[in-house]
Amino acid sequence: MALVRQPGFAGSFYLDDPYALRQQVESFLKAADLFKRLSIPKAIISPHAGYVYSGPVAASGFACLQGENSIKRVVVIAPSHQYPFYGIALTKADYYKTPLGEILIDKAAQEILLTQGQDVGFAEAAFDQEHSLEVQLPFLQVTLGDFKLVPVIVGQTDIKNVANLIELLWDENNETLFVISSDLSHYLDNTSAKILDKKTAQAIESLDEEAIGFDQACGRLPILGLLRVARKKRLKFKCLDLRNSADTQGPSNHVVGYGSFHLLSHPGKGE
């Protein structure tokens, strides 16, 4: 019998009704239509808050994937928020489910990570309590439709281990897409948040690992791993959208920053 990982955050971070959820995601994508014409990226850095907060910004990164049939596999790399552990976690599930249906997990890719990766193992508890990976999935289901999934949760580990994981699953024919899940600044006032998030965006675009501190992105380790690979392969990042919860949901004394970034498939493309 197939093991299906059930959705843990439908009805809280995003809608649990399939029809309403698809409508919501499609409305976000329609509002981000400006980004639909962009070239397909090799990787996306995408926010992971509740959809009413970060959904419009996430849509900016995913909009260009609509109707794309060249991507066969998506590797979603997310940070652990609630479950402290050392290493990089995979799940033994065969499918990852959302209200929009089940996504087949790429067991062959997992075997590569388990045998050749560093600090990689199974840890179901890391997935049980983690929203940051799951919230990316409905956007991928709506835009791509059918694809295989490699879900990864990153705990405490060396940046080189995350970079190694990415390189192990990298392909040159662009059938694999990487999605790095991360919000930016947390609970600053609006002005301070915009200043810090702009600094973070500039660091990502310049591939500057040293310029991204612990307070700048909750998905810092996944981001830094991708930056290291991008620098090695001489690829470029482009910031598409940089807003915070005050921009999407109205004024607040304490906001959370969101950004959508593309790692371009080839230097100079998609500008």
Describe the structure.
The chain has a single domain (18-70, 82-246), classed as Protocatechuate 4,5-dioxygenase, Chain B (3-Layer(aba) Sandwich), CATH 3.40.830.10. It has helices at residues 18-31, 51-62, 107-116, 124-128, 131-134, 137-144, 159-169, 190-205, 220-233, 245-249; strands spanning 4-5, 43-46, 73-79, 88-90, 95-98, 101-104, 120-122, 148-154, 176-181, 186-188, 237-244, 255-263. The chain has ten helices and twelve strands. It starts with a strand and ends in an 8-residue tail after the last strand. The model has no long low-confidence stretch (mean pLDDT 96). With 271 residues, it is of the alpha/beta class. Strands 2, 3, 4, 7, 8, 9, 10, 11 and 12 form a nine-stranded mixed sheet that branches. The chain has a three-stranded mixed sheet with strand order 1-5-6. A hairpin with a 2-residue loop joins strand 5 and strand 6 (101-104).
